[in-house]
Amino acid sequence: MDAGPMIGLILYVLGGAVGAIFYLPFKKITGWAWESYWLVYSVAALLVVPWAFAFAVAPNFIEALKATPTPVLLKCFIFGAMWGFGGLTWGLMIRYLGVGLGLALGCGLCAASGTLIPPMVDGTFGTLFNSLPGQVTLAGVGVSLLGIIAVGAAGMSKEGEMSEEQKKASVAEFNFRKGVAVAIFSGLMSSALNFGLQGGKELQGNLATLSPPTPEMWQGIPVIAVVLLGGFLVNFLWCLMLNAKNGTFGDYLKPAPSKAFVNFLLAGLAGVIWYSQFAFFKVGDAKIGSLAFAGWAALMSSQILFSTLLAVALKEWKGVSSRTIFLLVLGLGLLVGSMATIGAGSKIQIEEQKAAAYAPPL
Known about the structure:
- By secondary structure, the protein is mainly alpha-helical.
- 78% of the residues lie in helices and 0% in strands.
- The chain is built from 13 helices and no strands.
- It has helices at 4-21, 34-57, 61-67, 70-121, 132-161, 164-170, 176-190, 192-198, 201-209, 221-246, 257-288, 295-313, 322-358.
- The longest helix is centred in the N-terminal third of the chain and has 52 residues, at 70-121.
- The chain starts with a helix and ends with a helix.
């Protein structure tokens, strides 16, 4: 039995897990404004690590870039820049709503648009209904969206049950209206990242054919580097602007040189953790086959799953009603079921392909 789909699904789940915890090192940073640690994080997550990893795993990276038409690279870059605006507000979303509710709403919108729009744009969406693997995978995407809705409903219920004092105790800057507005913008813009990653197939083709070829499992890694370059430019310039506006350039040398070094390490660690989710994601794509479009939903679903469990551990759900707990558990169960269904769809496709390969000629 081909283990590829299961490996791919495990990689998506691992990606979601690290995506849910990347924010934690920020909580240990002291004496810096948001824009200061976000700038250091952006340099690590969007520039240094992606390009270093791409050069490490793709021996023909430069040749493949030269052979790829400029419009293709520019499209990846622009989608990355669009994601950059979503990424800028992702942190604000968590500040206003907390890890659990913030990531549920943001990832939900990001999962829905980032999963369904790319196959609609490239004309392959309709073909998914014509095969059992496609139907099963679409069902898995649908279940994931139901799970996201249930978790979001639990968050709404929680928000209505808690007093302002309770909300502030678990999330210091809790503001539901601001948080929802930011989540809508951030979730929709962040889905552009998947558009960019799916749009780099020509670059991946060059990586596969130019000598020495890049192994299949690593062919998506250079695409990440190109896409994130657009996001880096947006984040870097925005943080510099805020440093200038708020007079926070001095943050990088305080509260003391030794403690500032710790802040650099923590912000850089957050960047490494954040980037690793998309390394898992693209390597998982190589394992799961032509149904990889559903990987985005699996990644977002697992991120919501783990972020919600983290929020429970951080006591963000303390004191809620049994109704809210029911919605939360229902949502988490649906998310787990969706990932299993998506994996089953890919597995069925692999089995059908193997059966066709061994079928005797007519």
